[in-house]
Design a protein that fits this description.
With 429 residues, this protein is of the alpha+beta class. The protein is built from twelve helices and 18 strands. The protein has an eight-stranded mixed sheet. A three-stranded antiparallel sheet has the order 5-7-6. 38% of the residues are buried.
Length: 429
């Protein structure tokens, strides 16, 4: 949600920032809706004041036993009441139209991010590790013999495309990865673990920006319940309609959860393997901060994601997303992309974003800087730490051997009974 006062003060700047994201001008529409809303509210307030005056005159006429005047004033009072009801309904409708329009507009981009239309214009800001040199042609994860526990056929039979059943060593390794990530984020990075519902209300999806514009990308199970596309929705909305004190910030949370996405806009993309699934797991990070600390918090969050891959000794690069590639609610985003030798390319495994006060305005999440200052909106941030399924893919492809077996990273061996390898038949050895 945008601050209507800032749009009133500088409509040209607002349109300029939307243009950076490829959106047409919107300030005049916002201001016109706002003008109509304010005019109707003012007329309703005047009518209420007039009603009080008429009410006083009715009482006076009754005391004076002036029947003619009394009856005339009663008719006038009735008409005034009807007018007030009409004006209040118009004001409510005007407010609804303004809010709906503001909810359809994306966040304005941070001034530091590069101009661009799509992911081809993102900027690499750092990289870590060197891709392994293979003496054989590395395979994609779903073709590696040792990954036989990736069961797509039966998953498709019971659920349809873009689902997977994990069996044996694949299920164990997937579980080990999620536990390993949680341990690092909690014990090493100091995040507070949360277990949260995967079903949320409409207002929660609206608060973080999934609704109303991106309803088709998520799964609705009732008129007011949605399956979360990421636990960012659950975690961030913990703070909706709350007033925090500055001394309790920042809040740094982490949650391992199932996630559900319809992938409505990705038809034909990544249909092989488990790179893009309707149901998957993530270890999600969320931070709630004071505005002047959100930039440093974004860097910290990104480092929390990067550290997972460094411990697993898997190469990655970090990209600063351009104006045409950042998400709807984001002001600034760093994507951490992991090296997948089977695809011979980098693929996103974490997206860490600062949303400024865009989400907090939608959720009414505020804090008090000090006892003598007015309330301000907090800043919200979110990022994957990491996507568990994609991390499994990265381990399988980077640690595959020529005979079809898969080595287990040292950091994960303690989570799988100190096993060091998965055989070409898919068993721990």
């Amino acid at each position: 949600m945008h601050d209507i006062r800032k749009i009133r003060e500088n409509p040209k700047e607002f349109d300029k920032q939307l243009l950076r994201r490829g959106y047409g001008p919107a300030a005049n529409i916002v201001l016109d809706l706002d003008k109509k809303r304010r005019k109707t509210i003012l007329e309703a307030e005047k009518a209420q004041a007039n009603r009080k005056l008429i009410s006083d005159e009715v009482k006076k006429a009754k005391i004076e036993e002036n029947i003619v005047k009394f009856n005339a004033l009663r008719i006038k009072m009735s008409n005034t009441k009807e007018n007030i009801v009409r004006l209040e309904l118009e004001a409510k409708e005007s407010d609804k139209k303004l809010k709906e329009y503001l909810l359809s507009l994306p966040n304005t981009p941070h001034p530091d991010i590069p101009e661009g239309k799509n992911e081809d214009e993102n900027q690499e800001v750092s990289n870590w590790g060197s891709p392994r040199t293979f003496s054989f042609k590395p395979l994609e994860h779903f073709l590696i013999p040792g990954a036989a526990g990736l069961n797509f056929r039966d998953a498709a039979k019971i659920s349809g495309s873009r689902f997977v059943i994990l069996e044996g060593s694949m299920a164990t390794l997937h579980r080990a990865l999620s536990q390993f990530m949680l341990d690092i984020q909690i014990k090493e990075h100091g995040l507070r673990e949360i277990w949260a519902p995967v079903l949320v209300k409409n207002k929660c999806m609206t608060g973080t920006g999934q609704l109303p514009k991106f309803a088709e990308d998520s799964y609705s199970i009732s008129d007011d319940q949605w399956l979360i596309p990421t636990s960012e929705v659950s975690l961030t909305n913990i703070f909706s309609d709350k007033i925090l004190s500055s001394n309790e910030l920042p809040h740094r949370l982490v949650c391992h959860s199932q996630c559900f996405r319809s992938e409505a806009g990705s038809a034909g993309r990544d249909t092989s393997g488990m790179l893009r699934q309707h149901q998957f797991e993530k270890v999600e990070m969320v931070s709630i901060t004071e505005p002047h600390k959100s930039e440093n918090e974004l860097k910290r969050m990104t480092e929390c994601a990067q550290n997972i891959l460094e411990i697993l000794e898997i190469p990655y690069r970090t990209m600063l997303l351009c104006t045409g590639d950042i998400g709807f609610s984001a002001k600034k985003t760093y994507d951490v992309e992991v090296w997948l030798p089977g695809q011979n390319r980098f693929r996103e495994i974490s997206s860490c974003s600062s949303c400024g006060d865009f989400q907090s305005r939608r959720m009414n999440a505020r804090y008090r800087p000090s006892t003598d200052k007015k309330l301000e909106f907090v800043h919200t941030l979110n990022g994957s730490g990491l996507a568990v399924g994609r991390c499994l893919i990265a381990v399988l492809e980077n640690y595959q051997e020529e005979d079809g077996s898969i080595l287990i990273p040292k950091a994960l061996q303690g989570y799988v009974g100190k096993k060091t390898r998965i055989s070409k038949n898919g068993d721990f050895i």
